[in-house]
Amino acid sequence: MTNENPRPILLWLVAIGFFMQTLDTTIVNTALPAMAKSLGESPLRMQSVIVAYSLTMAMLIPASGWIADRFGTRRVYFSAIVLFAIGSLLCAFSQSLTQLVASRVVQGLGGALLLPVGRLAVLRAFPREKFLAAMSFVAIPGMIGPLLGPTLGGWLVVVASWHWIFLINVPVALVGCIATMKHMPVGRGHGATRFDLNGYLLLAFGMVAISLSLDGLSDLGLRQATVLVLLIFGLASLVAYWLRAARQPNPLFSPRLFSIPTVSIGLLGNLFARIGSSCMPFLIPLLLQVCLAYSPLQAGLMMLPVATAGMFSKQLATRLVRRAGYRMVLVVNTALVGVAMASFALMSPEQPLWLRIVQLACFGAVNSLQFTVMNTITLKDLDGGLASSGNSLLSMVQMLSISMGVAAASAVLAAFTDVFSSAAGVLQTLYAFHATFATMGLITIASAWIFWQLSPDIEPTAGPHEAAEAS
């Protein structure tokens, strides 16, 4: 090792990787209309740019631990940064939507490995009693990424072009590659276990088929029969995976995870609650630019109240859970998230700016609180060999829900655009957005029933804010 005390530098290295990943998840949203104009596409049909990235990440996360054990954390982390940089360059030079989507897949391959492999390196470098504090430090840039992403994306589109939202990743990646070779431990595993390739293929195919079936309703132009077949095959593939996993000695995710009530309810609640709320960073900037004539920079600035209120509301999680309990907080707050989402159906050009800001801040506060408490209830009862598996499964569910949420919202938006075809010009699109917000809000409210299945007697054994950041 070239440094006698590499641990602080290792934390900074992993934190920068996490920042790159979370920044790129949000920076694209405000630039979608500019991309659509440049590529000759409709801004309402650009969801594949987001779906491709998040779905690729969801697919690779289950294999990330085995890959790191097999090839070593330094080599894999270095390769992840290189892949991310190559994908960014390909995105910047894309000449069509198809090329851009393919480039986002390459970028997602790198992004999927950044946090899991970095987290593994921190886990091996720090003793257990210091791991929580170390991961809390790593999580701070991860919160700054979504805070800066929409505004930075809008600013780059205005002062330069949308290509620069990808090109700025290249110098950061170059610094990251140099730092990785100097300060990342080799981390060669203790001999990787046999990889469950057949199980992985079943799981990956299921996720892709379900996401494509949703995306096909709005973007791919697939016939209804094809969409139905994809959906059925996707669900069958996921069921086949879990049936197979019950008979495997080393499955990707142990079925024993679902024998723990908080884990099973937390995972299902995460999936369905996030399907609704994950579409909001995609829908809001589109609504502001397409229907309310905001510039990309103005649309990005309007996302600041969402992120800022979210950072403050995280501090309330522990106090609320200790006073009301996990079940009551999650049931009530899930309903509030859905109501906040549905309230965007009232947004119009005549709405005062201050009211719009308050509306965005309220959504950001309840949505951030939701994520924090959902993550904590899912992970709080995991220990031993199930901790790593459960955490990886939660990460996969989170990325899958983004993919499904954006695809579902786009399909709903496309359907309502046809419904309101008799309306003239911008009004047709505005009414379609209103109906989409109301529909996705109702989906989120319905997911509160999942959290009602939690026992009312669950005691908070750790602060939800701290536990969620460590996850």
From TrEMBL:
<feature type="transmembrane region" description="Helical">
    <location>
        <begin position="257"/>
        <end position="276"/>
    </location>
</feature>
<feature type="transmembrane region" description="Helical">
    <location>
        <begin position="131"/>
        <end position="149"/>
    </location>
</feature>
<feature type="transmembrane region" description="Helical">
    <location>
        <begin position="49"/>
        <end position="69"/>
    </location>
</feature>
<keyword id="KW-1003">Cell membrane</keyword>
<keyword id="KW-0472">Membrane</keyword>
<keyword id="KW-0813">Transport</keyword>
<keyword id="KW-1133">Transmembrane helix</keyword>
<protein>
    <submittedName>
        <fullName>DHA2 family efflux MFS transporter permease subunit</fullName>
    </submittedName>
</protein>
<feature type="transmembrane region" description="Helical">
    <location>
        <begin position="393"/>
        <end position="416"/>
    </location>
</feature>
<feature type="transmembrane region" description="Helical">
    <location>
        <begin position="431"/>
        <end position="452"/>
    </location>
</feature>
<feature type="transmembrane region" description="Helical">
    <location>
        <begin position="224"/>
        <end position="245"/>
    </location>
</feature>
<feature type="transmembrane region" description="Helical">
    <location>
        <begin position="76"/>
        <end position="95"/>
    </location>
</feature>
<dbReference type="Pfam" id="PF07690">
    <property type="entry name" value="MFS_1"/>
</dbReference>
<keyword id="KW-0812">Transmembrane</keyword>
<dbReference type="InterPro" id="IPR036259">
    <property type="entry name" value="MFS_trans_sf"/>
</dbReference>
<dbReference type="InterPro" id="IPR004638">
    <property type="entry name" value="EmrB-like"/>
</dbReference>
<dbReference type="GO" id="GO:0005886">
    <property type="term" value="C:plasma membrane"/>
</dbReference>
<feature type="transmembrane region" description="Helical">
    <location>
        <begin position="200"/>
        <end position="218"/>
    </location>
</feature>
<dbReference type="GO" id="GO:0022857">
    <property type="term" value="F:transmembrane transporter activity"/>
</dbReference>
<feature type="transmembrane region" description="Helical">
    <location>
        <begin position="155"/>
        <end position="179"/>
    </location>
</feature>
<dbReference type="InterPro" id="IPR020846">
    <property type="entry name" value="MFS_dom"/>
</dbReference>
<feature type="transmembrane region" description="Helical">
    <location>
        <begin position="282"/>
        <end position="307"/>
    </location>
</feature>
<dbReference type="InterPro" id="IPR011701">
    <property type="entry name" value="MFS"/>
</dbReference>
<feature type="transmembrane region" description="Helical">
    <location>
        <begin position="101"/>
        <end position="122"/>
    </location>
</feature>
<feature type="domain" description="Major facilitator superfamily (MFS) profile">
    <location>
        <begin position="10"/>
        <end position="459"/>
    </location>
</feature>
<feature type="transmembrane region" description="Helical">
    <location>
        <begin position="328"/>
        <end position="347"/>
    </location>
</feature>
